[in-house]
Design brief:
GO terms for molecular function: asparagine-tRNA ligase activity; ATP binding. The protein is of the alpha+beta class. It has 12 helices and 17 strands.
């Protein structure tokens, strides 16, 4: 029988494990040997503390080790069938056991990192006098107008009555694709609001950048007349986050780009010009009037930003949602061809933030809804605008210039943590064809 056993102990407050030394003098030592290689929960009684413990002979590995007097096995697991063995497991394998993968050091570190990031962002918005809100998850409209929504249903369908189709809400409802419209309503009450809440997209995109359920940080601010003010808010927010976390962790080149270098701001038209003169062959076309694809965004982030985030502004009106304010400056043709919006691109991950000034004038909003086929061409006045009637009333009953943005929180964490696939950032990821646990 071995006289000494060594155990690597993971703790809630440490990113690195602590070595435990168990000798035969330790109570229940023989019982422990029966479970020596188990991944279970153990309660130990130390004879020295981790902070003042005996220096380890291997100083390069760790500075302290813990000599154990007593150990009790609280929850045993069969070492032969336990899914997490003492070897390397691929991310693909760990995704098949999402209920267990946070027990690995890397994934538990991501959980802590996520928690620290939320705390830092909450501090930032509190200092900026923003009100944190909780908009609804079930909504009556598709905010983005793209049709990629999950429709909400009930397992029980009752009999249809007069004016009732038998569904739970008596009309079609959806899982939210964005909280923006509701935030606009709240911002007109308290001025500045933000939320960090789940968002759902029924996109059948099986890529490292897409999920069906993810968290979006969104903010809305009243009495803002310049889009630059919204971009300043985004930049200050992300600099605050990275600076706060920098003091506690060793960070990479991308963190330096977030904190120290200036963030360039170019228009969509200038981005197209950069792509045209690049001399590179892209898989997707890059002509004015088409959306930028991931390969285009990646090129712009790497060449224009040189490691720092890049704002791309003033996209064509035809490829953006109805609620965006038309640009006042002339890009191509007439001033109405572009809208006051921006995307924030970062190297590798591409777009992580999208924002805009909102159309706050009722006649112009109605015209935009008509142009997008959302209401009849003769709609106006007291016309019932269906599920968006409440949104038009925000303009009817007093509105001010305002704008806001949405941040893909999980994409941001993946970028800062150096994780290539967003499915490793989310504890229980859902994407097309997969919804485990």
């Amino acid at each position: 029988m071995s006289t000494v056993s060594f155990v690597q102990l993971g703790t809630r407050k440490r990113y690195h494990s602590l070595q435990l030394v168990m000798a035969q003098v330790c109570n229940h030592y023989k019982l422990f040997l029966l479970h020596n290689k188990l991944k279970d929960f153990r309660r130990v009684q130390p004879c020295v503390s981790p902070d003042t413990g005996k220096p380890s002979p291997n100083q390069k590995a760790q500075s302290n080790e813990l000599h154990v007097l007593e150990v009790n096995v609280l929850g045993a697991a069969d070492p032969a069938t336990f899914p997490l063995q003492n070897k390397y497991h691929t991310p693909e394998y760990l995704r098949t056991i999402p209920h267990l993968r946070t027990r690995t050091p890397f994934n538990s570190a991501l959980l802590r990192f996520r928690s620290q990031s939320i705390a830092s962002l909450t501090q930032f918005f509190t200092e900026q006098d923003y009100v944190q809100t909780h908009p609804p998850i079930i909504t009556s409209s598709d905010c983005e107008g793209a049709g990629e929504v999950f429709e909400v249903g009930s397992a029980h369908r009752g009999p249809a009555g007069k004016g009732d189709d038998g569904t739970f809400f008596r009309s079609s409802k959806y899982l939210t694709v964005s909280s923006q419209l509701h935030l606009e309503a709240l911002a007109q009450s308290v001025g500045k609001v933000w939320t960090l809440s789940p968002t759902f997209r029924a996109e059948k995109s099986d890529t490292p950048r897409h999920l069906s359920e993810f968290y979006m940080l969104e903010a809305e601010c009243s009495f803002v007349e310049r889009m630059g003010s919204i971009m300043d808010l985004v930049e200050n927010m992300l600099r605050h986050l990275t600076t706060n976390l920098y003091s506690t962790q060793e960070l990479t080149r991308r963190w330096e780009g977030m904190m120290k270098r200036p963030w360039p701001r170019i228009t969509y038209t200038q981005a197209i010009e950069e792509l045209n003169k690049s001399g590179q062959t892209f898989e997707h076309p890059h002509t004015w009037g088409l959306g930028l694809q991931a390969e285009h965004e990646r090129y712009i982030a790497n060449t224009v930003g040189l490691g720092s985030p890049v704002f791309v502004t003033s996209y064509p009106k035809s490829i953006k949602p109805f609620y965006m304010l038309p640009s006042q400056s002339l890009e191509i043709g007439t001033s109405s061809e572009t809208v006051e919006c921006f995307d924030l691109l970062v190297p590798e991950v591409c777009e992580i933030v999208g924002g805009s000034m909102r159309e706050y004038r009722l006649p112009e909003l109605i015209s935009a809804m008509q142009a997008n086929g959302m209401v009849r061409s003769d709609a106006g006045g007291e016309e019932d605008f269906g599920a968006l009637k409440w949104y038009t009333e925000l303009r009817r009953w007093g509105s001010v210039p305002h704008g806001g943005f949405g941040l893909g929180f999980d994409r941001l964490l993946g970028y800062l943590a150096g994780v290539q696939n967003i499915r490793e950032i989310v504890t229980f990821p859902r994407w097309v064809g997969r919804c485990d646990c």
